[in-house]
Each structure stands twice: as structure tokens, then as C-alpha cells.
Amino acid sequence: MFELNKNFNLLEEQLAESGLEMSVDPVTATLIGAGLSAGSSILGGIFGSSQADKANKDAKKAQKKQEKAAKKAADNANKYNARAFEIEKANYFNNRRFQREIDLDSWRYRQEIQDIQYQQVVKQYAKSVENTENQLVFNSLAAIDAYKAEQSALNDIFTESAFERQGSLVDRLQQEGTAALGQAGNSRNKALQSVIAGVGRNSAINDASLVSSVEQSQRNMRQIALQKYGADLAARAEMMIRPEAIPDIPQPKQAPERIFIEPMEVTPTYIPPAVQQSTVAPLISGVTGAVGAFSNINWAKVFKTD
């Protein structure tokens, strides 16, 4: 925008430059100058309005570009956040399934180990029962052999005692016969009584020895029975206790699923409206300048009559 100098006379300047002289009265010159100044103000207002309109359009274009860029950035951020959210959920559930498989594999392995250990204990118990039964059979056989040996020894004693009794009886008869043949009367009777008394003493000694042997044999039999009972107790004491089945290992529990919150939507960055310049103000200013150019004229002189 430009403004003409109020003291500048365009017509006189042009005439001066052209070397022409023209006689113009002052009133006419003043009107011409005012018209040129007013026209210049109006042209300046139109030019200023055009410049303001162009600046407004450029500002609008810049605003549109910024809004488009902000929307694109927001769309890209939303796409990325949505993709990242889906990947995060997929990774979580994949890891959850993988961890579940690991926990189940570990549980199955520990359950299998427990079953194998229990089977081994059952086998050991069965072997212990077998060994105990064998030991009890051995103890019974040993006791039977001991009983037989003791009974055989007792039988030998009875047999020996019987032979001794028989021998004593023969000796008695022989001695009685000898005593009867060798003497007569009272002497013979005394000899027979002496023989009978000796045989009686021997028989009593033999009977006492036999009773003692029988009692000792009975004590031996009881001792054999006690030894067998003690050996049976020891064998049963060494036998394993019947194993009880161990409860199954509980299956692993899984933690509750994670709760996901979808990402908040990104909105475009706020772009303030473009600053708009007034396109009317330059026009008003030009009109005002034009009016001002004419307002400086002394209209009293213009309309003064000679």
C-alpha cells in the first residue's frame, strides 16, 4: 500500500519533466491533485485487500496441510498401537500355552517317577515277604530236625535203659541162682536178700537217671520251641511294612488370564485456525484516504466567484 504526498502535484511534475508549460489555475490544479491522491489511496486499498486475501488463502492451505499431517500421524499411531496390542496379546497367550505344556510335562514326569518308585517299593515288599516266609520255613525245618534229634536221643536213652534193666534182671537171676546153690538155710536167705537189694538199688538208680534224662529232653524241646519262636519274631520284624499307595500329584493350576486394556485412540494434534487478515480494512483505509484527500481542499476557494 502506498500513499501520495499531499504537497505533490503530479500534473505540474509531469509538465515540468516534459518541458511544457501550461497555465493552470490553482483551483484546477488542487482538484486534479486531490483526484490523483484519492485514486492512489483507492488503488492502494484494492492492492492491500488483494494481498490480504492471498495471505489468508496461503494460511488456510498451511492449516490444511498441518491438519492432514496431524491426522496422518494420528492414524499411523493408532495403527501401530493396534498392531502392537494384538502382538502383545498373541505373545501372552502363546507363552501361556507354552508354560501350561511345560507344567503338564513336569507334572506327568513327576507322577511317572512316583509310580515307578511305588512299584519298586511294592517289589521290595514282595521280596521281603518271600524272604520272611522262607526264613519261617527254615526255622520250622530246623526246629523239626532239632525235635527229631532230641527225640532220637531220648529214644536212645530209653533203649539203653531197657537194656540196662534187662541186664540187671539177668544179673539178678544169676546172682540169685548162685546164692541158692552155694548156701543153705539162713545164709541162703540172707544172700538172696542181699542180691535183691543190690538189684533194687541199681534199678532205682537207673529209673532216676531215666526220669532225669526225660525231663532234660523236655527242657530241650521247650528250648527248641523258644528258639524257633524267637527266630520267627526276628524274621517278621525284618519284614517290610506293607506300602500304601501315595496319592497322585495334583495337576498344576493355571493362573487367571490377564485382563487387557485396549490402547487409547490417538486423536490428531490440535491445529489452531489460520490467522485471517481483513480484506475490507485496506479498502476502508483506501476510501478513507481518498475522502481525506478531498477533505483537505478549501472548497470555499473552489466555489469562490470573482
Radius of gyration: 75 Å
What share of the residues does DSSP label as strand, in percent? under 5%
How many domains, as an integer? 1
Mean pLDDT across residues: 75
The total of helices stands at: 5
Largest sheet: none
In N-to-C order, the SSE pattern is: HHHHH
Backbone shape:
rod-shaped
| Low-pLDDT stretches | 1-11, 18-22
How far apart are the termini? Answer: 41 Å
* DSSP strand tally: 0
Class by helix and strand content? mainly alpha
Helix content: over 70%
Mind sketching the topology for me?
Elements: H1 10-18, H2 26-182, H3 186-238, H4 280-295, H5 299-302
Helix pairs in contact: 2-3, 2-4
3D structure, described in words:
The structure is a single chain. This protein has 306 residues and is mainly alpha-helical. It has one domain (10-241, 278-301). The chain has helices at 10-18, 26-182, 186-238, 280-295, 299-302. It is rod-shaped, with a radius of gyration of 75 Å. The model is unreliable at 1-11 and 18-22 (pLDDT under 50).
